[in-house]
Amino acid sequence: MIWQERLADKGIISQLSNDLSVSFFLAKLLAARGFSNHAEAESFLRPKLAHLQDPFDIENMQRAVSKIIKSIDEQQAILLVGDYDVDGISSVAIVQQIISKLGGNVSFVIPRRKDGGYGLSKAVLSRGLKNKKYSLVIALDCGTNSKEEADFLENQKIDLIVVDHHQSKGDLSSFPIFLNPHLGKDYEVPWLNLCTTGLAFKLSHALVKALRNEGNEIALKISMKEFLPLSALGTLADLVPLKNENRILAKFGLKHLGNNPSPGIEAIFEESKIIKTTNLESEDVTFKIAPMINACGRLDDPGVATSLLLENDPQKCKLLARKMSTYNSERRAIEAMLTDEAVKLAEDEFCEEPAIVACGKGKCWNPGVVGIVAGKLANSMRKPCLVLAKTEEDEYRGSGRGAKGINLVNALAECEENLEHWGGHPVAVGLTVKKGQLKNFKKSFLRAIKKQAELNDLVQYLKIDAFVELKDINNTLLEEINQLSPFGQGNHEPILAIQKIKLAEKPRKVGSGEHFQFGIKSMGQIISGIAWRMADNIPPTDQEIDVAFRLRWNTWNQRRSLQMVLVEWKLHIKTRK
Ligand SMILES: [Mn+2]
Fold this sequence. Notes:
Layout lengths: L1 E4 L4 H11 L3 H9 L5 H8 L15 H13 L3 E6 L3 H16 L3 E5 L12 H7 L5 E7 L6 H9 L3 E5 L13 E3 L16 H18 L3 H5 L6 H10 L6 H16 L3 H9 L10 H18 L3 H8 L3 H36 L6 E5 L9 H12 L3 E6 L5 E6 L6 H6 L5 E7 L2 E6 L4 H18 L5 E4 L1 E2 L7 H8 L13 E6 L6 E3 L4 E8 L2 E7 L13 E12 L2 E13 L6
Parallel strand pairs: 1-12, 2-3, 2-4, 4-5, 5-6, 7-8, 13-14, 17-19
Antiparallel strand pairs: 8-9, 9-11, 10-11, 14-18, 15-16, 16-17, 18-19
Helix pairs in contact: 1-2, 4-8, 5-8, 5-10, 5-14, 8-10, 10-11, 12-15, 13-15, 14-15, 15-16
């Protein structure tokens, strides 16, 4: 890979450094992220909850709020239907909590994969609506494209509010009240990229605001901060860009999550060995908490996770978290088997192709796990990957994950005639291939990807945020970097590079031999580093090398030290870069 520094205008850097009273280094990181004026950079660097816009700015918010308040006032039953992933489950927990706090009669149902799966479907509605007479259904993280189900509810005289951030495919039903930022015409609003927990937060805020205006005692006592942790869970897990309002919710949500977890979250912390702290990182959510929540829906019943998030009894939370942890271990085992099989297929059949379509059947081809494996393969092979499992109905169904510069939604649109169902985002899709169409589908999918790939620049670059000197690496530098956190989609963690250094000693393989540790000598001290899954490419000790890395805290026995997480290394050649 070619290392390329993210450059920025020197004038802008000094201006930002001056205006914001920050170091030249931090100003450079900001400028290289595209910030050029004081106001924008300031609100990014120092976000405030008060920067969240009025929730009533979102189209249809007033209508949704009036409908919910009417149902609460008249004590009519409200049913929440959420998706089975972290975003859906956390959204259900937020809305369930706010409506029941306000005295409403509310219950929830989450679809199960084994009952036919995703979203606002007839199956989930018949399960949810069976015991009571409902007057309102709120769909969370699903429902944008459920035209038939909307018609069904309309016929039953049950109102429907859809709180969702999925794009629409063609005509929408005119009946539901949509809270979906992508259906509006304004693409500049700071809430455009909220996921459903973000929208659920805004909806809760709007309810509280409206009722406070009426002098409602309960609403006056509710603190919106309580709902921040769940909003952060969905925002980080759903990989929406961490800018604008998403950044505010993720940043403050993480802080509250780490400082003041609910009993359910605290039980998850214990199971996944997270230490209660103010410095919770986005990876604690994406690598530890989110997989535990998702595992419930992948293997069995996502309702387990919702119950945990809503439970206040620490003893019950412990049992639920235990159960989630067991699901998660099972998920890991299945994932490992499926990855092996899919990698074999990819190497045999698709090594010359611009994309991978791995299909199979049997025990490890679990529909709940195909998406993760597709993601792993897409990452490691750097090309788009679909993983499809054969269902009992003899159809191939699964998930796809994209690669740089490829839009999977556009690619699938070109294969529409071979597909039964499909949908998703440019980098993540779900699909079912029509019976008997697998071969044709593969062909047209590969053709569509090839077309897109040809338009792309095939040279791979590693973008370096800043070249630094060994002597610059210290605690202050990392504290400055962390002012840009939380990192994730749309707000990458900076990659630093140092040129022309020698390792302090021979690197040591760790783990089961797939990783290695290394050290670099600086001002008489050794800064240690870790290289995950890079043990097949260990740098020499007797030659000068360049290293690209992320700088992190490494906490060990409650002591914090600096650690480099290696991204790539190469032998140093005399010309810069
Ligand atoms: Mn979502």
